[in-house]
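Researcher: Hi, I'm a grad student and pretty new to this. My advisor asked me to get structures for two proteins we've been looking at. I'm not sure of the right format, so I'll just paste the first sequence and hope you can take it from there.
Model: That works fine. Here's the first sequence with its structure tokens right after it:
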Amino acid sequence: MKKALHQFSLFLKRSNFDRGIRLGTGIAVPIVVLYFFGHFEYAPPIMVGVLLSAPSDIPGSIKRKINATLINIALTMLVTAIILFAKPFLFLLLLAVTFVSFFISLVSVYGFRASLVSFSGLMAMVLSFAVEKETFTEIMVHVLLIGVGGLLYLLVSIIFQKLAPKRDQNQLLSDTLLLISAYLELRAKLLSKKSKRETLLKQSFILQNQINEKQEVLREVLITNRKRSGRSHYEEKELLIFISSVNIFELIEAKHIDYDRIDRIFGEKKEFLEASKEWNNIMGYHLKRLSEILIQNGKIPNKKRLLAAQTKANDTIGDYVNTVGLPQAREGALVLRNLADYQSQLLQEIRGIRRVMTNVKDVSQVSLKRQDSSQFLTLQEYRLNVLIQSLSLGSKMFRHALRFTIAIVFAFLLGYFFNIENTYWILLTIVVIMRPSYGLTKERSKDRIIGTIIGAVIAFSIVLITQNVVLYSILAYVSFIVAFSLIQQNYKSAAALLTISIVFVYSLIHPNSFEVIQFRVIDTAIGAAIAVIANYFLFPSWEADNLKAVLLNAFKMNKQYLEATEAFYENKTKNKLLYNVARKEAFLAVSNLNAAFQRLTQDPKSKQKEYELIYEIVTLNQTMISAIASIGNFINFHQTTPVSKEFAVLVKKISNTLQLAIDRLEDTHLEEKIANETVADAQAILLGKYQELSNLRDDNIKKGNTTIDNNTLHGLQEAYLISNHMNWLISLSENLKKATVSYQNTLLPEK
């Protein structure tokens, strides 16, 4: 019970609930004001305008939010006018529905924010079917009142943002830390749960994508605000927390360990990994608590458990050496030492967040130059050319627009010829659940139907118990606000609450509410069926056929990241920005690839062509970026020796192998060969450096010098990590090239 109350308290303070309150306020104001002045008949179109403007109110820079809302208002007014003027003429209405459905759904090519504007435009089209306006004056008044509603919502949104200007940022930071805490705990499980690694790795793909999405929005919000208004103390704190979250994410990525080697080294001695696992879990819990404190006042958790876990993990290294004995224990000890160093770096970042959140005065400041900060922003291209380039069957969004239009027109004609009373409910269901991918459409259809049935049962039960119209009004209003708050988090619950709200609104208008409940469920089922069938049979867009572009980008960004890491190794100061930007681009590329793979798993089994091969490519690419991040992370946090020419030779070899994979996908086949003898010599020299340092350490132990100094330890760590990771990267790149050749030979010729 206590946990449920805690979660409910967090929900009430989330920015999603805040946006629900904004919507509720925007709806309540015209109802109260116009009822008081005796012009309640003007309230419904204003409320519709409020509702249609709400979707574009998402986290981001205030400028983009205002621009999106204004475009949203203009679009919904235009669409409403087109449909209302066309309604008396069936053929003209059919043309209008076809035109609006196709071109507005195609607007989604401009990104997530544009897709929400597109959604509002399509909603305006559907809701226009519920409006009975005949004369020119009636239609224009209705359209103008929708515009008034949109402007009212924009005003309410700006006022709320002025009252709580940092709520969106705090929510995004909180969500990011919460996801990272889950990712950290998942990484701990990977160390010892050998039988569950494939399942855990697939879960990690989802988490990586979610973290990257949150961090992309945070970059836009924090960096854009900083460029516009300069630096404030509060914004400085937010940016510091964000940078620490990025560093933590990179550190976790950097420890995508060679688990086969871990299994080989520790074998039956996995108990020596338990301290590292426990430390990870404690840090994960700590991040979770910090994420909650960002949106809800609370006490910063005590750091004693963190420090105790650190001590235990460090002591375990000595226990392992004493149990196994040197020199046999050296490789395992270095693995544990590298793991402990990585976790110590994680701990420093977490403690940095703690210091920021406890208002410690001497926290470091961010010195990112304005001209540099713009390089971290991913800008959306809004030129007309982007839309024109999408006008082909090769475009996923074009096929979706065609499919969606046919589904909408079919549903409209179905309602017309069979005289279905509320056809727009079927159309509304299609608009809400139909997505470019089959898997997401099917999932949303299922959630929509289940949610609608649950909502209908609840509403039916309440209607049986009481006929109190005041209670109906309160429940309709509250359930609508909560439904809008939950729509991004829990679509099934949102659908249930939305059904409750709609049923009670209709119960206030029509005496036979049971008939409303019945038809609501039936129409939802019809709309969901049309959406799923259309996605399966009409210009289907199976993810296995759409991976080429995503794969190409991931390979190119990995290659760029590797080369930037080499430059960073050569000169940390000069090439720091180059490395950070390349890291960000590589993480985004692998996140997009992981998201594409996740969509593939939602497609029907029969359409998951060469699933195992694609999974292998995704996993190899993921492992490569982690191995590169591990090298970059070591360079960043340690004093390193000068870059050897052997390292450069191996980087060139790996880069060339990646280029061969890219050439295969692009059908260019421009092979640039590096002599295998040169690569083998470079590998041998790097391994020899480690063996030389290792032998020197053995000699010192024999002489009684059992205590190792920091320089020797760091030298051993560097030689061991560089030698092993470069060999690992060579093997990974070769396997990736082979898998890419198989992918090209088996999948691409079919297209």
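Researcher: Oh nice, that was easy. Here's the second one.
Model: And its structure:
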Amino acid sequence: MDGERHAAVCAAARKVFETGILAGGSSFAPGLDAWTLPAARELLHRFVENYDGSSDEFLVKLKRQISAASDGALVLAAELLYLNLLPLNAGTVGPERKSEIIGTVLSWTSRETAVPADLAEAASNASIKGGQAFLNYRWAQFAFLIRVTVRLLELPAPERERLLDDPWAFRDLAREALTDHDGKYRARSQLHVLLFLLFPDAYEPIASERHKHLIRDAFADRLAETGGPTGDVDRDLAAVRARLERESGGPVGFYAEPWRSVWHPPEKSRPQRGWLVRGANVQGVNVIPRWLEEGFCSVAWAEAGEIPAGASREEIGSIVDRTYPDAVNESRYAHVLQLSRFLTEMQPGDLVATVDGDTVYVGKITGEAFYDDEDGRDLARRRPVDWNTARPLNRRRLSEAAQARLRDRRTVGDLTRVMAELATEADMPGEVGHEVKAVDETQPLAIPEITKTLADDLLMPLDWLRETAGLLAAKRQLILYGPPGTGKTFLATRLAEALAGPERTDLIQFHPSYGYEDFVEGFRPRPGANGTIGFELVPGPFKRAVEAAEAEPGKPFVLVIDEINRADLAKVFGELYFLLEYRDREIGLQYSPHEKFKLPGNVFVIGTMNTVDRSVALVDAAMRRRFAFRALAPDRPPVDGLLRRWLEREKLPETPALLLEEVNRRLSDPDRAIGPSYLMTRRAATRRGLERVWATEILPLLEDQLYGKVGDVEEQYGLAALLDAPGIGLPREPS
């Protein structure tokens, strides 16, 4: 099919070019001598020699340059633009746009002129992918075609005829016309396409010089019988194609299989990502309408000039250092990070969004980064984008998570975790890869319901457990507080594992020397080269839990902090106090101010607080506001009667429960009451075991709590004293 389309396109191009170069006539306006040396030189003077470097669109500048030219020059300009646009497929320039460009130029003439139907039909069925050069260097391609035309028309008619019969001599002449006004060669793609249009038997339908070399090198073994590559890539490709056609017994297309995968093997797939690129205020100008119309996005950093696509951070850093020598470290890092994202980390197939007021536009990146300063350096650093302008979004109607990510003020931000929502709302769900879906933090969080089985296992009321889990789900942070032995840590761990599973539950313990560097992140010494010691920024358990949660946003992760009140909480949490309350916001951390940090909604924190060490009343207001508090007191549900229920289930004597009730009655202080977990052991079912537990665990605790308040703790709270209470007796020794 491509062969037939190529043949029709080449025939149309040859007709226009030969009619003009050999006869001087116009294919659009029969009877008009458009392809004359005076007309060509007029275009050369008006367009090429008077280069317009403004940021206006191509047609705007073109009108300013040539609209006052003679009819002959204008029709010649239209026919040269036809040759420029003719071979390009709809993905590069659509038929309507081709017609609009050529029709606009013809409208500047004093006569009614239009593209003949057969030539228009050929242009609508073209199949060459021109790439970004044809979208962004049209002025250079047009200038090249003008220069080629002038050079040909300056030759005698027999010489022109000879050149149109000799593909290699024609190429030599055309190459001489490549140099732009500033000495660069921006029209090489146009040269390759023109050669194919006029000499399809000698040249390939390939616009990229790089592709030509890749193909020649991949099939170099087919040139062995002729002595190997000659250094002339076009001649080598002609020989390769001839050899492959003999082998296959049919036509060969290097962009079709099985040939394409030989020279262009599939690249290793990289997970799809989503990006935010800002363009509403580029040096005071909103360039987003331009992006949407022309199909690209861009970043400025105009002073840095051209930086190769795919450059490493080190290479970009060197350029930033030279360009912005006075930038502080944080500013320098921001420049490097955002340029690296745009030039290297972004890949074709990634999704991108931009924000214009409250309107959000979503698109798909379709090509590599490139540099074109035709429209000024503020728009020079570009990536092609297929924007979906038919379905813009209202940012205020998006999820809180998406709105939070869109608040990122940086020029280039990471939107991967909310891009699934944006693309779906923009009617682009088919463009969302499974990698983006997997990390979608806007997806509903699946929190399991507390089961009766768990309640029976814990010997606790089901309603109390479900209410506690509901508080945690709503607040995201919960503290279980109470005196020693009330099972705070045990309950916190079992509750966490029931909601998140053991593999998504972590437990740490605070202590007086615990700090921010231990909990969040901090610099730690690490062995360096030659026996030296260096420092490395190491994430703490909190940041590691966040990283794990971000990988599975649809599942809860729980961090259990035992003895949370034993550390200086303001010192340990630092700026995280803010994030505990505002989960939809991002901030910079102390040691990573250049990177935005967000606390995902699927991270939960359960702390345990021993009220003997510190009363809840002494907890600062900031902490109390961010956590829900649940008391575990021996004399109140769900702990009240827990020991008795456990003894009944284990079929053990009730003596430990009677002792616990009596000692707590005598203490008469809920914050110093003894919890049941000390006695929830089979050791306490015997006299010796009970004596050992009381003497080594409970009595030392009471002596510490009552120091200076009770003269003889053992006399009042010792096991012997308690056993004298009515109705209590020691359990019997097993027979």
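Researcher: Is there anything I should tell my advisor about the second?
Model: You could mention this: The chain is about 45% helix and 10% strand.
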